[in-house]
């Protein structure tokens, strides 16, 4: 502190000597006065910063714990100040002194830098001592407290790297001052190498700790303290990687070999750019990778070949077992007395096969040493995303399940669904394939089917054929009834039970209609319909029963005017028009016959 005050006093004397009337009275130019004032102000400010630093350092020795924390923060603030102000002092240094004042200014700036050198290296030593002291506290500490302490140590290391970087700038600034920097440069390079070696060791140690903590978490899953310590150790590793990267840059500036450190950075951080331009780093990494590969092959090839063999045996055995299970399920469903839909049969058979194969693959992968937990979790996330992206497909799938359980139709049924009429050719949980009567294949989504009316024409084994036949009003009704009943009784496909029905149904405008309703097997529906219709026409023709066609009587009235002076008919009044009635019968077209 005394040296700082004496330095400030000297600057005041120097400034006073530069005033007019002093020993340098001949140099009173305005620019000289202004330069002297600027130099005085800048150096005074820097000198005050150095003085503050020394004062805080002297108080720190006997301070209490709380005061020590306050003084440490003040010292850090002072350090930032003189780091910011010292370049101004170097800028004031006259490289070619032309008078006594310039020589005095040179001497004072050299003394200032010398004082800062001492303070800077004292501060670097203090930081290193603080780091060593905190590391000694880790023994016996709780997991949570140790994590905090490790993070604090890594923060101190970062500060130490910042001071080391400033030391390089400080040395570079003194190279214009004709100062012997050999000892200082050697000291700085020694510090750099020690810091780089220590930081590299810390990186390797953090990597080993992370691996050990991960193994502990496998045995003690969910341990909050271990999880916290693992997170803190990873942060420490990241900070040490940043510190080593800064130190490597400083070593490169001093032209010191850094390939070993760059190799470590690339290996740990996987940052290939850190050694992309260094051929020695690339060569080292390639050599290490090849050696690691050879070592891994020599150590694990036998084990993995055996695992691969076991994997193949399990998969092939599982596939054979899945086929046997599929056949067994298929046969048991075919022999089942319950009426099961084809869709349900295929679904059960396919589910049994896929279930056996899934268990086989899971077992085989487990034998290979794969951890299936993350894989299953990934499938869950993917399934959740696909659920939103495939809402329509899932709707069809849900409708397919409803069709599967309620069985409104089956393969081979004749259905009328969603405006499509035809035979069901194929069913799945997503869609239904329908073959129309004119041999067109239509694929209908299950969601449209389940949300609409489903008409299954062939669901029942027995159906009623509804037919209507008309006769004229002049035909014999008992005779027609006898003819119709005889036709139904003689047809082989008409069932006796339920009993067929022949009834006079309706008196139409042009015909007397009979309903004819025989019961038949579903497969014989159209054969009976066509046969009975043909036979009715032939019998009606043979027994002179007419099949009427629509007709309409039209009455036309015409007005006939009497001739002039002609005698009127007897009984009629003169000038009374004569009425003539004509009956017109409309003949039906070829399409009018029902």
Description:
The protein has helices at 2-17, 30-60, 65-92, 100-136, 143-173, 182-219, 224-253, 259-269, 279-335, 342-368, 372-389, 391-406, 446-450, 477-490, 525-542; strands at residues 414-417, 420-427, 431-436, 441-445, 454-456, 462-464, 467-471, 501-507, 512-517, 519-521, 553-560, 578-585. Helix 2 (30-60) packs parallel to helix 4 and helix 14 packs across helix 15. The strands form four sheets. Strands 4-3-2-1-5 form a five-stranded antiparallel β-sheet. Strands 7-9-8 form a three-stranded antiparallel β-sheet, with helices on one face. A two-stranded antiparallel sheet has the order 6-10. It folds into five domains: 1-136, Up-down Bundle (Methane Monooxygenase Hydroxylase, Chain G, domain 1), CATH 1.20.58; 139-277, no CATH class; 391-456, SH3 type barrels; 462-542, Alpha-Beta Plaits; 553-592, no CATH class. With 594 residues, the protein is of the alpha+beta class. It is elongated, with a radius of gyration of 55 Å. Helices cover 63% and strands 11% of the residues.
